[in-house]
Design goal:
289 residues, alpha/beta, Rossmann fold, 2 domains, 6-stranded parallel sheet, 3-stranded parallel sheet, 9 helices, binds the ligand Nc1nc2c(c(=O)[nH]1)N[C@@H](CN(C=O)c1ccc(C(=O)N[C@@H](CCC(=O)O)C(=O)O)cc1)CN2, binds magnesium ion, one-carbon metabolism, THF_DH/CycHdrlase, multifunctional enzyme
Protein backbone atom coordinates (compact mmCIF):
# COMPACT_ATOMS: atom_id res chain seq x y z
CA UNK A 1 0.00 0.00 0.00
CA UNK A 2 1.40 3.38 -0.96
CA UNK A 3 -1.55 5.66 -0.19
CA UNK A 4 -2.03 7.42 3.12
CA UNK A 5 -5.19 5.99 4.74
CA UNK A 6 -7.58 8.77 5.73
CA UNK A 7 -8.85 7.96 9.23
CA UNK A 8 -12.46 9.15 9.12
CA UNK A 9 -13.20 7.52 12.45
CA UNK A 10 -10.54 9.56 14.26
CA UNK A 11 -11.49 12.75 12.40
CA UNK A 12 -15.16 12.22 13.30
CA UNK A 13 -14.29 11.71 16.98
CA UNK A 14 -12.44 15.04 17.04
CA UNK A 15 -15.37 16.78 15.34
CA UNK A 16 -17.82 15.27 17.86
CA UNK A 17 -15.67 16.65 20.71
CA UNK A 18 -15.78 20.12 19.17
CA UNK A 19 -19.54 19.82 18.75
CA UNK A 20 -19.87 18.92 22.44
CA UNK A 21 -17.95 22.08 23.37
CA UNK A 22 -20.21 24.15 21.10
CA UNK A 23 -23.35 22.47 22.50
CA UNK A 24 -22.26 23.33 26.05
CA UNK A 25 -21.70 26.97 25.03
CA UNK A 26 -25.14 27.00 23.39
CA UNK A 27 -26.77 25.62 26.53
CA UNK A 28 -25.07 28.37 28.59
CA UNK A 29 -26.15 31.15 26.21
CA UNK A 30 -29.64 29.94 25.28
CA UNK A 31 -30.61 28.30 28.59
CA UNK A 32 -31.49 24.99 26.93
CA UNK A 33 -29.74 22.18 25.05
CA UNK A 34 -29.86 21.85 21.25
CA UNK A 35 -32.46 19.21 20.29
CA UNK A 36 -32.48 16.67 17.46
CA UNK A 37 -35.58 14.70 16.44
CA UNK A 38 -35.00 11.53 14.42
CA UNK A 39 -37.90 9.74 12.75
CA UNK A 40 -37.65 6.08 11.77
CA UNK A 41 -40.41 4.39 9.77
CA UNK A 42 -40.35 0.60 9.83
CA UNK A 43 -37.68 -1.77 11.07
CA UNK A 44 -35.01 -1.92 8.38
CA UNK A 45 -32.05 -3.34 10.34
CA UNK A 46 -29.39 -0.97 8.95
CA UNK A 47 -31.65 2.07 9.44
CA UNK A 48 -32.39 0.99 13.03
CA UNK A 49 -28.66 0.80 13.73
CA UNK A 50 -28.04 4.25 12.23
CA UNK A 51 -30.92 5.79 14.19
CA UNK A 52 -29.66 4.27 17.43
CA UNK A 53 -26.15 5.59 16.70
CA UNK A 54 -27.59 9.06 16.02
CA UNK A 55 -29.45 9.06 19.34
CA UNK A 56 -26.34 7.96 21.25
CA UNK A 57 -24.13 10.54 19.51
CA UNK A 58 -26.69 13.28 20.25
CA UNK A 59 -26.72 12.52 23.97
CA UNK A 60 -22.93 12.11 24.08
CA UNK A 61 -22.61 15.62 22.59
CA UNK A 62 -24.76 17.04 25.41
CA UNK A 63 -27.83 17.54 23.23
CA UNK A 64 -31.45 16.47 23.58
CA UNK A 65 -32.49 13.42 21.53
CA UNK A 66 -36.11 12.85 20.48
CA UNK A 67 -36.70 9.51 18.78
CA UNK A 68 -39.92 8.75 16.90
CA UNK A 69 -40.42 5.17 15.69
CA UNK A 70 -43.42 4.61 13.42
CA UNK A 71 -44.66 1.32 12.05
CA UNK A 72 -43.83 0.40 8.44
CA UNK A 73 -47.48 0.80 7.37
CA UNK A 74 -47.92 4.34 8.75
CA UNK A 75 -49.72 6.60 6.27
CA UNK A 76 -47.98 9.53 4.60
CA UNK A 77 -50.46 11.97 6.17
CA UNK A 78 -49.64 10.73 9.66
CA UNK A 79 -45.90 11.05 9.02
CA UNK A 80 -46.38 14.57 7.66
CA UNK A 81 -48.49 15.48 10.70
CA UNK A 82 -45.57 14.39 12.92
CA UNK A 83 -43.17 16.57 10.87
CA UNK A 84 -45.59 19.51 11.36
CA UNK A 85 -45.55 18.98 15.13
CA UNK A 86 -41.75 18.85 15.17
CA UNK A 87 -41.57 22.01 13.03
CA UNK A 88 -43.72 23.80 15.63
CA UNK A 89 -41.81 22.44 18.66
CA UNK A 90 -39.30 25.04 19.90
CA UNK A 91 -37.21 22.46 21.75
CA UNK A 92 -36.48 20.77 18.39
CA UNK A 93 -33.67 22.42 16.38
CA UNK A 94 -33.05 19.59 13.94
CA UNK A 95 -35.43 17.16 12.23
CA UNK A 96 -34.28 14.11 10.33
CA UNK A 97 -36.38 11.43 8.66
CA UNK A 98 -34.27 8.33 8.19
CA UNK A 99 -34.10 7.14 4.56
CA UNK A 100 -35.10 5.03 2.76
CA UNK A 101 -38.83 5.30 3.51
CA UNK A 102 -41.28 2.50 2.67
CA UNK A 103 -42.40 2.58 -0.98
CA UNK A 104 -45.92 3.81 -0.26
CA UNK A 105 -44.57 7.10 1.14
CA UNK A 106 -43.45 9.91 -1.16
CA UNK A 107 -40.01 10.86 0.16
CA UNK A 108 -40.12 14.29 -1.49
CA UNK A 109 -43.46 15.17 0.11
CA UNK A 110 -42.01 14.42 3.54
CA UNK A 111 -38.65 16.14 3.06
CA UNK A 112 -40.19 19.30 1.62
CA UNK A 113 -42.46 19.52 4.67
CA UNK A 114 -39.50 19.91 7.07
CA UNK A 115 -38.77 23.52 8.10
CA UNK A 116 -35.61 24.29 6.02
CA UNK A 117 -33.98 25.88 9.09
CA UNK A 118 -34.41 22.56 10.99
CA UNK A 119 -33.43 20.40 8.00
CA UNK A 120 -30.17 19.08 9.45
CA UNK A 121 -29.89 16.53 6.61
CA UNK A 122 -29.76 19.46 4.16
CA UNK A 123 -32.08 17.58 1.77
CA UNK A 124 -34.81 20.26 1.46
CA UNK A 125 -34.81 21.99 -1.96
CA UNK A 126 -34.46 25.35 -0.18
CA UNK A 127 -31.15 24.18 1.30
CA UNK A 128 -30.07 22.69 -2.06
CA UNK A 129 -30.77 26.11 -3.61
CA UNK A 130 -28.89 27.94 -0.87
CA UNK A 131 -25.87 25.68 -1.43
CA UNK A 132 -26.02 26.13 -5.21
CA UNK A 133 -26.16 29.92 -4.88
CA UNK A 134 -23.66 30.33 -2.02
CA UNK A 135 -26.17 31.32 0.66
CA UNK A 136 -25.89 30.21 4.29
CA UNK A 137 -27.95 27.04 4.83
CA UNK A 138 -27.71 23.46 6.02
CA UNK A 139 -25.48 21.19 3.92
CA UNK A 140 -25.95 17.40 3.51
CA UNK A 141 -23.85 15.54 6.07
CA UNK A 142 -21.99 13.01 3.92
CA UNK A 143 -20.65 15.47 1.31
CA UNK A 144 -19.78 18.04 3.99
CA UNK A 145 -17.89 15.28 5.83
CA UNK A 146 -16.03 14.43 2.61
CA UNK A 147 -15.11 18.11 2.17
CA UNK A 148 -13.74 18.27 5.73
CA UNK A 149 -11.53 15.22 5.05
CA UNK A 150 -10.36 16.76 1.77
CA UNK A 151 -9.57 20.14 3.38
CA UNK A 152 -7.42 18.35 5.94
CA UNK A 153 -5.28 16.94 3.12
CA UNK A 154 -5.50 19.89 0.71
CA UNK A 155 -5.64 23.15 2.72
CA UNK A 156 -5.73 24.84 -0.72
CA UNK A 157 -8.37 23.15 -2.87
CA UNK A 158 -8.59 26.02 -5.37
CA UNK A 159 -7.63 25.01 -8.89
CA UNK A 160 -7.55 21.27 -8.27
CA UNK A 161 -9.33 18.99 -10.75
CA UNK A 162 -12.13 17.12 -8.97
CA UNK A 163 -14.27 14.37 -10.41
CA UNK A 164 -17.45 13.33 -8.62
CA UNK A 165 -18.80 9.96 -9.70
CA UNK A 166 -22.58 9.83 -9.21
CA UNK A 167 -25.26 12.53 -9.32
CA UNK A 168 -27.62 11.75 -6.44
CA UNK A 169 -29.34 14.63 -4.66
CA UNK A 170 -27.92 13.36 -1.36
CA UNK A 171 -24.23 13.03 -2.24
CA UNK A 172 -23.13 13.65 -5.85
CA UNK A 173 -24.84 16.98 -6.55
CA UNK A 174 -24.10 18.66 -3.18
CA UNK A 175 -20.51 17.31 -3.30
CA UNK A 176 -19.97 18.92 -6.70
CA UNK A 177 -21.48 22.20 -5.42
CA UNK A 178 -19.20 22.20 -2.35
CA UNK A 179 -16.08 21.56 -4.43
CA UNK A 180 -17.09 24.29 -6.87
CA UNK A 181 -17.52 26.66 -3.90
CA UNK A 182 -13.88 25.84 -3.03
CA UNK A 183 -12.85 26.83 -6.57
CA UNK A 184 -12.04 23.31 -7.74
CA UNK A 185 -12.57 22.52 -11.41
CA UNK A 186 -15.43 20.06 -11.04
CA UNK A 187 -16.67 17.34 -13.34
CA UNK A 188 -19.60 15.12 -12.46
CA UNK A 189 -19.65 11.75 -14.22
CA UNK A 190 -22.63 9.38 -14.20
CA UNK A 191 -24.26 6.41 -15.87
CA UNK A 192 -24.57 8.23 -19.22
CA UNK A 193 -21.02 9.65 -19.29
CA UNK A 194 -19.18 8.39 -22.38
CA UNK A 195 -15.62 8.13 -21.06
CA UNK A 196 -15.68 7.83 -17.27
CA UNK A 197 -12.07 6.61 -17.11
CA UNK A 198 -10.85 9.51 -19.26
CA UNK A 199 -12.32 12.00 -16.79
CA UNK A 200 -11.16 10.19 -13.65
CA UNK A 201 -7.58 9.88 -15.00
CA UNK A 202 -7.24 13.68 -14.96
CA UNK A 203 -8.52 14.14 -11.42
CA UNK A 204 -6.47 15.30 -8.42
CA UNK A 205 -9.54 14.45 -6.32
CA UNK A 206 -11.93 11.59 -6.97
CA UNK A 207 -15.17 11.24 -4.98
CA UNK A 208 -16.92 7.94 -5.73
CA UNK A 209 -20.62 7.80 -4.86
CA UNK A 210 -22.21 5.38 -7.31
CA UNK A 211 -23.26 2.48 -5.09
CA UNK A 212 -21.51 -0.13 -7.26
CA UNK A 213 -19.00 -2.30 -5.37
CA UNK A 214 -15.43 -1.85 -6.64
CA UNK A 215 -16.55 0.29 -9.61
CA UNK A 216 -13.50 2.59 -9.73
CA UNK A 217 -10.49 0.72 -11.11
CA UNK A 218 -6.88 1.28 -9.94
CA UNK A 219 -5.71 2.13 -13.48
CA UNK A 220 -8.22 5.02 -13.64
CA UNK A 221 -6.50 6.83 -10.76
CA UNK A 222 -3.84 9.45 -11.44
CA UNK A 223 -0.79 8.57 -9.31
CA UNK A 224 -0.89 10.57 -6.07
CA UNK A 225 -4.58 11.56 -6.38
CA UNK A 226 -6.81 11.76 -3.31
CA UNK A 227 -9.66 9.24 -3.42
CA UNK A 228 -12.79 9.56 -1.29
CA UNK A 229 -14.92 6.42 -1.33
CA UNK A 230 -18.52 7.12 -0.29
CA UNK A 231 -19.74 3.61 -1.16
CA UNK A 232 -21.15 1.39 1.57
CA UNK A 233 -22.08 -1.82 -0.26
CA UNK A 234 -23.08 -4.92 1.68
CA UNK A 235 -21.76 -7.92 -0.29
CA UNK A 236 -21.07 -11.60 0.46
CA UNK A 237 -17.47 -10.47 1.02
CA UNK A 238 -18.67 -7.95 3.66
CA UNK A 239 -18.86 -4.18 3.52
CA UNK A 240 -17.07 -2.81 0.44
CA UNK A 241 -16.72 0.60 -1.17
CA UNK A 242 -17.21 1.89 -4.71
CA UNK A 243 -13.43 1.85 -5.25
CA UNK A 244 -11.39 -1.26 -6.00
CA UNK A 245 -8.96 -1.78 -3.08
CA UNK A 246 -6.07 -1.88 -5.60
CA UNK A 247 -6.49 1.91 -5.95
CA UNK A 248 -4.57 2.25 -2.67
CA UNK A 249 -1.42 1.26 -4.60
CA UNK A 250 -1.78 4.29 -6.89
CA UNK A 251 -3.51 7.01 -4.87
CA UNK A 252 -1.71 9.48 -2.60
CA UNK A 253 -4.46 9.27 0.02
CA UNK A 254 -7.63 7.20 0.22
CA UNK A 255 -10.54 6.62 2.59
CA UNK A 256 -11.05 3.04 3.77
CA UNK A 257 -14.47 1.34 3.87
CA UNK A 258 -15.49 1.00 6.65
CA UNK A 259 -13.89 3.74 8.77
CA UNK A 260 -13.56 6.48 6.17
CA UNK A 261 -16.52 8.60 5.10
CA UNK A 262 -19.20 6.65 7.03
CA UNK A 263 -18.33 7.88 10.55
CA UNK A 264 -18.24 11.48 9.28
CA UNK A 265 -21.95 11.37 8.38
CA UNK A 266 -23.15 11.22 11.98
CA UNK A 267 -20.45 13.58 13.29
CA UNK A 268 -21.50 16.22 10.72
CA UNK A 269 -25.16 15.63 11.66
CA UNK A 270 -24.20 16.62 15.22
CA UNK A 271 -22.40 19.67 13.83
CA UNK A 272 -25.43 20.66 11.74
CA UNK A 273 -27.71 20.31 14.78
CA UNK A 274 -25.71 22.69 16.97
CA UNK A 275 -25.34 25.12 14.04
CA UNK A 276 -29.11 25.00 13.38
CA UNK A 277 -29.80 25.57 17.10
CA UNK A 278 -27.46 28.58 17.25
CA UNK A 279 -28.95 30.18 14.14
CA UNK A 280 -32.51 29.64 15.36
CA UNK A 281 -31.72 31.10 18.78
CA UNK A 282 -29.61 33.94 17.37
CA UNK A 283 -26.55 32.99 19.45
CA UNK A 284 -22.96 32.66 18.24
CA UNK A 285 -21.40 29.34 17.30
CA UNK A 286 -17.74 28.47 16.62
CA UNK A 287 -17.40 29.66 12.99
CA UNK A 288 -14.76 26.96 12.37
CA UNK A 289 -17.21 24.18 13.25
N1 LIG B 1 -32.00 10.83 6.60
C1 LIG B 1 -30.88 10.19 6.24
N2 LIG B 1 -30.95 8.93 5.80
C2 LIG B 1 -29.79 8.32 5.40
C3 LIG B 1 -28.54 8.98 5.50
C4 LIG B 1 -28.52 10.31 5.96
O1 LIG B 1 -27.45 10.98 6.04
N3 LIG B 1 -29.71 10.88 6.33
N4 LIG B 1 -27.35 8.30 5.21
C5 LIG B 1 -27.38 6.86 5.06
C6 LIG B 1 -27.26 6.10 6.33
N5 LIG B 1 -26.43 6.70 7.39
C7 LIG B 1 -27.01 7.63 8.18
O2 LIG B 1 -28.18 7.81 8.23
C8 LIG B 1 -25.14 6.22 7.70
C9 LIG B 1 -24.50 5.31 6.90
C10 LIG B 1 -23.27 4.79 7.26
C11 LIG B 1 -22.64 5.20 8.42
C12 LIG B 1 -21.36 4.60 8.88
O3 LIG B 1 -20.81 5.01 9.88
N6 LIG B 1 -20.84 3.55 8.21
C13 LIG B 1 -19.71 2.81 8.65
C14 LIG B 1 -20.00 1.32 8.53
C15 LIG B 1 -21.16 0.92 9.37
C16 LIG B 1 -21.59 -0.51 9.11
O4 LIG B 1 -20.82 -1.41 9.39
O5 LIG B 1 -22.73 -0.69 8.65
C17 LIG B 1 -18.50 3.10 7.79
O6 LIG B 1 -18.67 3.37 6.60
O7 LIG B 1 -17.40 3.06 8.33
C18 LIG B 1 -23.27 6.11 9.22
C19 LIG B 1 -24.50 6.62 8.85
C20 LIG B 1 -28.68 6.43 4.39
N7 LIG B 1 -29.81 7.03 4.98
MG1 LIG C 1 -25.95 7.93 -10.58
Amino acid sequence: MTARLIDGKAFAATLRDRVATAAAAFARDAGRKPGLAVVLVGEDPASSVYVRSKGKATIAAGMESFEHRLSADVGEAELIALVDRLNADDSVDGILVQLPLPRHIDERAVITRIDPDKDVDGFHPVNAGRLATGLEGLVPCTPLGCLMLLQDIHPQLAGLEAVVIGRSNIVGKPMAALLLQQSCTVTTVHSRTRDVMGHVRRADIVVAAVGIPGFVQPEWIKPGATVIDVGINRTDAGLVGDVDPGAAEVAGAITPVPGGVGPMTIAVLMRNTVVAAARRAGVAVDPAL
